[in-house]
Amino acid sequence: MGNFFDSKYFIIKLKIVKKLFFLIVISAILLSFPSKSTKAEHQNGYKLRTVVIDPGHGGRDPGAIGVGGIKEKDVALAVALKLGSYINQYLPDVKVLYTRETDKFVALHERANIANKANADLFISIHANATNSRSANGTETFVLGLHRSAQNLEVAKRENSVILLEDNYVERYDGFDPTSPEGHIIFSLFQDAYLEQSIHFASKVEDQFENRALRRSRGVKQAGFLVLYQTTMPSVLVELGFLTNPAEARYLGSEEGQSFLASALFRAFREYKEEIEARGSHRYLADRSVPIPEDIIQNEVTQEDNPSSALAFKVQIYATQNMSDKDNAKFQNLQKFHVERAGDFYRFVVGPFNQREEASTHHKELINNGFGDAFLVPYYNGERISWQEAAKYE
Ligand SMILES: [Zn+2]
Q1: Cα of 13 from ligand 1 centre, angstroms
Q2: Which of 190, 206, 258, 352 has the fewest C-beta atoms lying within 10 Å of its C-beta?
Q3: Ligand 1: distance of its center to the CA of 43 in Å?
Q4: How far apart are the CA of 127 and the centre of ligand 1, in A?
Q5: In the chain, which segments carry CATH 3.40.630.40?
Q6: Which stretches of 172-257 are assigned E, i.e. beta strand?
Q7: What spacing in Å lies between the alpha carbon of 58 and ligand 1's midpoint?
Q8: Which residue ranges does the chain devote to CATH 3.30.70.1070?
Q9: How far apart are alpha carbons 254 and 234 in whole angstroms?
């Protein structure tokens, strides 16, 4: 090979330089007349085409049950359908897909599957919060990652526990146990290739909730949500507010509240779409390590207003040394039913419930439905504790 000063190569290099100069001039001319609507497409070809909206829970899984019996599944569906209709109306070039459009049960892996198969550009999971404190309030938007507080772990545990209602969840989710804190940690340590984009959208959502819908924003947070882990695109899980707070439950159940929240989500979506298309792509290399903005971490620490939310309750309905007893017909249609191992025994339990009143309601129902020996048990961070210990956390 010749070097730069060999005449043959020098001429070739000169030609390349001339060509480059020509290209720069042409580009400068083209760029000075940007057509706003087609600029992003011409520059890089990236368009946000498909969004999957995922209303949490549904069918036999009501999600959290709040003040006055309001159900998370109904609030999530109402807000999801409104958001989808706004996108269809104002951004007709975007394809809107739902994981459910009616009150039906959809397994978590199926929700992620719908988004993955559609090659969606964004996944928005919509939920409402619950805790054992009536004063807790505000919105929070989660991205996948390791929780930095017991409170965030509790939200993930509650949302992930819906897989207990699915058949064969142990096989389906590679042995993941939603009742153990360790399980939630393991998969949240995986590198999320879309973390930066997810945080970008999540921040817009919380900003709109605060400034447009005038809600109290608890900020962008991280925790190990199974449904986010299984999606292969930027994804967030939105908690619209606390159904266990009387005022917020009223707002979440109202037509007006649902419209405000959906329109805040729509504005966040529109802004995100515009920015991402101008930037070029939401695709990031999987091995790129994304620093987490410092303010997210601070938010989580300062907004910790309910340290007792790791407290939960279950109703024990039966104990046996024979695991196969669970196949008995009387256990088949119970909500939140699962089996816990304790030494040589198996405990058949219903729960967990974050609120003691909610657990008591289920306890009474179970007694009335033939489980006369049912009793209530407190748990802390997934471990069974005594009532004396529970009193310290309540
Ligand atoms: Zn939920």
Answers
A1: 62
A2: 190
A3: 40
A4: 4
A5: 50-305
A6: 217-223, 235-242
A7: 10
A8: 308-393
A9: 30
Q: Are the CB atoms for 143 and 220 separated by under 8 Å?
A: yes
- Expressed in percent and rounded to 5, the helix, strand and coil fractions of the chain are 50, 20, 30
More confident residue, 331 or 24: 331
Q: How many angstroms does the Cα of residue 17 sit away from the middle of ligand 1?
A: 59
How much distance in Å is there from the Cα of 229 to the middle of ligand 1?
Answer: 15
Element (H, E) at 280: none
Q: What are the C-alpha distances in Å from 203 to residues 151, 261, 296, 374?
A: 20, 15, 9, 44
Q: Give the Å distance between the CA of 309 and the centre of ligand 1.
A: 16
Amino acid (1-letter code) at residue 356: R
Cα(391)–Cα(394) distance, rounded to whole angstroms?
Answer: 5
Q: What is the pLDDT of residues 274-301, one digit of tens each?
A: 998 887 665 543 333 344 444 444 344 3
CB atoms within 10 A of CB 298: 11
CATH superfamily, region 50-305:
Zn-dependent exopeptidases (3.40.630.40)
Q: What is the pLDDT of residue 281?
A: 60
User: Cα angle vertex 67, ends 338, 69, to 5°?
Assistant: 60
